[in-house]
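We emphasize that the prediction below concerns an isolated chain of 432 residues; any contacts that depend on oligomerization or on bound cofactors are therefore not represented. The input was used exactly as deposited, without trimming of termini.
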Amino acid sequence: MSLFDTAMPRPLAERLRPTTLDQYAGQEHILGKGKPLRRAIENDQLSSIILWGPPGVGKTTLATIIASSTKAEFIPFSAVLAGIKEIKEVMARAEQTRRLGRRTVLFIDEIHRFNKAQQDAFLPYVEKGDVILIGATTENPSFEVNSALLSRSRVYQLRALEPPQLVTLLQKGLAELKKSCPDDLLEQIAIFSNGDARSAYNLLELAAAAAVGDAITQGSLEDILSRKALLYDKSGEEHYNIISALHKSVRASDADGALYWLARMLEAGEDRMYIARRLVRMAVEDIGMADPRAVEQAIACQQTVHFLGIPEGDQALAQCALYLSLAPKSDAAYKALKAAVSAVQSQTAAPVPMHLRNAPTRHMKQWGYGEGYRHAHEFGGAVTGMECLPEALAGAEFYSPTDRGVEPRIAERLTAIRESKKNFYKKPTSGQ
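Result of the prediction step, given as a token string:
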């Protein structure tokens, strides 16, 4: 027996990688019969494209199928391993190939890992037609691919595979492994795989290795399915998508939605203090004066999370998310600040009115600093009617309370105060 006879078999996902479009699973929205991308591949008339989608949905497999179906020279290229030197070598080779009358299809896996300078190195060759670029990325191309390169490519978004599609693939895997498994267990594997075919195959292979005999049982799965691997990159787009979903669920007073997205973040290992900070923001931005205690609750939650840590602090996050979801909503304070900032930006910086200035020296008093100031505590209700805005903005109203939560009561007092200001006279006789 030679050494090569004992070599480990290739992973199941690699052994079952499709080699034709008919074997390819999913992505019917771009690869169904008659779809432009399928026609371009079948007719060998492909232009530069970016394949964008989560892990394990077939980006590399699709590039491999294109490689086998095109008459052009196909060059796979890894953004993880290559630099400017390697890029220039490949581009020089592509230019020579074009002069011989052949096209070059260049596949760049994980194109988002290239920096701007590296991506710029491809641009002139794409423009000249020396290469047809196929880039694969898990990150949003709008953020990670240069706009010039992006404008010369067609972006195709690949979707996570649905559980029924994964079950079909897993059944092929069973045949390859010569194992049996009930359909309900295959469905469990499909759900735990989160739309990732590679992950599904890996889980099936592990379950087969743990099985006693030829049958995969529930017991075979228990150890390997102890924790679901969620699609969640703490520095990528999905991170922002999910926190956006949590924020908008809270804003919409959907407590169940808020709890779901919070649970997604917790299970994916998100930084608890990041979640707490975002909850504080929700309290001040979307609840504000409708329930001034909301920010108190959010700060208390932040302190509790810091004090208790994981997992006990997670319950404080859940409690705060529920409180904020069910609280009355108002963005009046948020809008008020924006209106005030707009006024500051759109006008010259007006001097502080003399009656609002302190007069710590005799000369400043002589110059009129503090003249006409009315000390609020000397007046009934501590309301003086004194104007506190610059003359150019006198009478401006930035804050408009809503009719939700405690803001109706706030609105009543605000109206009374504003009415008193209408009787303001520029230089009250009362001294400082």
